[in-house]
Amino acid sequence: MKKRLRLNAIEMFNPTDTPGFWAHPEDDSHRYKDADYWVELAQLLEKGRFDSVLLADVLGQYDVYRQSVAPSLEHAIQAPINDPTYLIPVMSQATKHLGFTVTVSTTYEHPYALARRMSTLDHLSKGRVGWNIVTSFLTTAARNFGLEEQMSSAERYERCEEYMEVVYKLWESSWEEDAVLRNKETRVYTDPTKVHEIKHKGKYFSVPGIHLCEPSAQRTPVLFQAGTSNAGKTFASRHGECVFLNNPTIEGTREAVEDIRARAQAAGRDPNSILFLPKITVVVGSTEEEAQRKYEEGLLYSSSEGLLTMLAGWSGIDFSQYGPEKLLEFIKAGDSRSIVEFLQNNPNREWTPEDLAALYRYGATTLFVGSPEQIADKLEHFADETGVDGFSISYVTRPGSIRDFVELVVPELQRRGRVQTEYEEGTFRRKLFGGTDRLPDDHPGHSYSAAQAQSV
Amino acid sequence: MKKRLRLNAIEMFNPTDTPGFWAHPEDDSHRYKDADYWVELAQLLEKGRFDSVLLADVLGQYDVYRQSVAPSLEHAIQAPINDPTYLIPVMSQATKHLGFTVTVSTTYEHPYALARRMSTLDHLSKGRVGWNIVTSFLTTAARNFGLEEQMSSAERYERCEEYMEVVYKLWESSWEEDAVLRNKETRVYTDPTKVHEIKHKGKYFSVPGIHLCEPSAQRTPVLFQAGTSNAGKTFASRHGECVFLNNPTIEGTREAVEDIRARAQAAGRDPNSILFLPKITVVVGSTEEEAQRKYEEGLLYSSSEGLLTMLAGWSGIDFSQYGPEKLLEFIKAGDSRSIVEFLQNNPNREWTPEDLAALYRYGATTLFVGSPEQIADKLEHFADETGVDGFSISYVTRPGSIRDFVELVVPELQRRGRVQTEYEEGTFRRKLFGGTDRLPDDHPGHSYSAAQAQSV
Predict the structure, then answer these.
(1) Which residue in the set A23, A61, A92 is minimally distant from B184, CB to CB?
(2) 3-state secondary structure of B286
(3) What are the pLDDT digits (tens) for B321-339?
(4) Region annotation Disordered: residue ranges (chains A, B) (predicted)?
(5) Which domains does chain B have, with CATH numbers?
């Protein structure tokens, strides 16, 4: 049987994703501050039977390229950027089924407050929330939060492990399932013997008390991760229920999937319980020719300066210091982040500057151009060859890219039995995995649910 | 001319306000986790031409009474409690005019993140957000955020002054009015020369960079404060645009109003530009008899244990150690918080235990019981005698108290020309004060708006 492909849209609460395309005549990114834009997008995604939308985030600016924040402002590279968590109530009120995953850094938010935010959003959306766990990488963010310098990657992950322990305790073990009675006869709202202090005392956090919120439908939100470093992959294999990838090749994607599944198995988890959702950019037309024309028109708007600003932020290298060959050399020599790493992990392929330019001019990601049938072919092929479970669809123009995908590609994938035609009932986790609203038995967060903590 | 009375509703994202009333047969507080409850409430308030709703908050539990969190759980005294900021997108999407003020503590949220949250909410609501500035008082919150003990009140206010400086710089001076160009011809989204680093370096915070968000309609949200201590009153007179009071007497309220207005004048502000909105609880019936019957039925649900839990939390005294006379003695001797202080500040009145019981059984606040005409008389009299500018209406049962007020009291106040029959257009600040969307010239936050900071 063919595997159902999950569809996730990638968004940010800012004016641009693919650098430069905000200036496309058909682009509506200037509406990003308008709640109605997000209502319409959510309804469009639900019409297309998308499983979820990811709201990515940063808490600083890109300032590596030309050693200045100026290029990121000029090209709107993730600046300005609003707090994406507030889009979830807007979008969840306008939909019934769509899931909402939001990026929140463990570096700048205390776990006691983060746990409440996520429980609140899970309550308001009736169990449709996911959390994309990141440890942050922008030094501008670190400085504005009063940290003299960014923690090392290793320290960030060590702290993040303890962070997860704290939030699991709050979500899974603090309030027993039947703690809240709301008994108007006995006048007891909550049975205090069934609410437990978590008594956490670790290297980074001290959280003695109870969780602020009563249990939500999922308790722990669906956990997303996008680790690409060795530490990141280990983290994803331990905690991730869904994993993003951004590797432009089938080989690189397959390797990453197999690597993380193997690590998960070694950690005692069902390797197939992790869903992989690589990032894909699609330019689709009703015919191949129309798609090609759209693609070529789009190139008029792609911004090299914007791309270099983004790549510099990811890699920490100021590309304004080098010619194009240096960029290629750097990419081939490899660095530790995202696309840069995926490229260096593909030694079997020769990357020419032309390859890279083509790849990058629609953002540093996998690009599929073609008719609905061709796109469906490519997506099925990519999935079958790599073992991924669906795709994270990014946009080029807003909301055109998503509208085209919903109107042209989704019906074709539905005809092929690859995309759901109706939603399952229930929480985001139940819709994604079937069966359960809560973390599965073999997930490390589950072990906290047998409340062992002492009652208050 | 009679002064227009502003109406503000007091809510919390939890199951109870007046202790015990969640168990009233007509109370719908169990719906507090349901977004639709808040949609309906927002629409009801807008129907009643309320100016705003205040979403109060705590980040810990009440654990002084019986030296345990158990009573607060049993009686649902501000526990469980969700994050109220997420109700704003829900309610603003369902309304056009209502303002939304939310309590956020300066103790547990970094100003760089708080500034983004407020700008985001102001964008999504198109300029309808207020911030109730608190410095927090619950030691359970301090402990769960890893602080061994709560900061002293003086230190909290000193830190809060610097906190305000940081957020004013981010909101008022970082992005010039015409920084964002969105020019599709020149392909410049933001003019970097018009975005300024705030370069803040103080005792408590170091924030060198730019604000994450472009300017929202109000830039700085409408600033609410409820200071009752000497330091609190000074803070309110400097920063507050709206001030809550919770003093059950006309004399005490008038003194507080005059005191804060005098302090504001001494600080160079127009003393009448501060709006005072004391907390009032109303039990209204279509006749006096019906109101009295409602009041007496309500007493069956009032919870002494719940009240003592709340008062113990406010005062820091565990009343389970004392008889009722001790409570009276304590209240008369005075302490530093809220109602307790207001009572001691009224030496001209003899407070009997019966007075206190009556007062407290509907929550520690001013209670008016009567027909619509009687309530309107009392509100007008209270306003005229004290110089306040409106009222913060709390609920007893949900949503019955607000529904009764909207259906019975508001039309009477409108007939008397005291409550608006239509909303003005524009932002929350413009609706409240007329004239301007931004901080007035004599407000300390305004001085930051002439951007002096160096561009990026």
Answers:
(1) A23
(2) coil
(3) 876 665 666 655 543 344 5
(4) 433-456
(5) 6-301+366-455 (3.20.20.30), 303-360 (no CATH)
